[in-house]
């Protein structure tokens, strides 16, 4: 597999190590940035966190044991970095500042509105973003990124039964929110 070949090059410190790492960034950079954005709801911060994820990947790649595929490992790093950020003082301060300024919580900008032009997609998108984090993350990882329940439980360090419960509750909340925002049942 191409990923295995890239990992071997990076781990060997071969002359093409930089090229191999750049290839991993090309393969997963946008995907990771979109995942992070779904948590932080701010494009500039998602870009910063994405860079942080790949810096960590670069410095810790020799610790990759190969027990899962590299995509799963990168997702785990991204989710952990994002959760750390969401717990940070900086994030909480920004939330308070945004509320005081009267800025929308979702941080919408022209790019986002352009990307989400379809009304039903926009309503679904808004509904997902309004879910509490513990439900939003299982919906995004399981349905949007198409990871299994087992993989989702590994990413989030929770039991598979907990993932199933959160998915069930998230679907109910999502349906309520979707209908409330004008989506069709």
Please write the CATH class name of the largest domain: Mainly Alpha
Structural class by helix and strand composition: mainly alpha
Question: What coarse outline follows from CA principal-axis ratios?
Answer: globular
Count of runs of 4 or more consecutive helical residues = 10
Q: Please tell me the overall pLDDT.
A: 78
Question: What is the rounded distance between the termini?
Answer: 43 Å
Order of helices and strands: HHHHHHHHHH
Q: State the share of residues found in helices, binned by percent.
A: over 70%
Largest sheet: none
CATH architecture of the largest domain: Orthogonal Bundle
CATH topology of the largest domain: Rna Polymerase Sigma Factor, Chain: A
**What's the total number of strands?**
0
Mind telling me the CATH superfamily name of the largest domain?
A: RNA polymerase sigma factor, region 2, helix turn helix motif
Strand content bin: under 5%
Keywords: Sigma factor, Transcription, Transcription regulation
GO biological process, one term: DNA-templated transcription initiation
Domain RNA polymerase sigma factor 70 region 4 type: 123-174
Protein name: Sigma-70 family RNA polymerase sigma factor
